[in-house]
Prior knowledge:
This protein is mainly beta. The protein has one helix at 8-20; strands at 33-43, 50-53, 56-62, 65-75, 80-87, 90-98, 101-111, 114-119, 129-148, 157-159, 162-174, 179-188, 191-196, 199-205, 209-218. 6% of the residues lie in helices and 62% in strands.
Amino acid sequence: xxxxxxxxxxxxxxxxxxxxxxxxxxxxxxxxxxxxxxxxxxxxxxxxxxxxxxxxxxxxxxxxxxxxxxxxxxxxxxxxxxxxxxxxxxxxxxxxxxxxxxxxxxxxxxxxxxxxxxxxxxxxxxxxxxxxxxxxxxxxxxxxxxxxxxxxxxxxxxxxxxxxxxxxxxxxxxxxxxxxxxxxxxxxxxxxxxxxxxxxxxxxxxxxxxxxxxxxxxx
Length: 219
């Protein structure tokens, strides 16, 4: 579940970058292709909705997961660019509960490719600290759904793929003409319709914050 301390990651990165920044100039702007690689953590919101099954209504709790992630991007002006987020599959455990007691549990994989249009307020300048913000769209594909319901052997869960809005904040700390340290965070609107044994049981609201730290390379 989401940790309240995580939003401080970007602030800490910006503060650290500003502290060690020098006057050395780096070209940073129009025409840059870049990739960012690192480890991303997907943190669903704490309240993931309720499902209505033949056994009753249950609260849903989706757990965090971390995986390798990378982005590909292009800046078509000094201050505007696009970036696509991709990753290896995230594997989330979840529980269904009623009155605080766990009734069922399971897991699912998902891939969340996300495309954002980005704004770089310091693009085209010689600043080594380059913050950015983005808005865009997320597509989430679910696979390998599994569920264990006591007393219901062979229960089958299906989660529909999801489209939703995305928001992004990030910062690069330029090391040289090609390399930078990077920290970024996305908010993704992920709501999936669920069915159990072919019967619709409601919508699971995942709506995670994705936090990534790693390296950026431009070419």
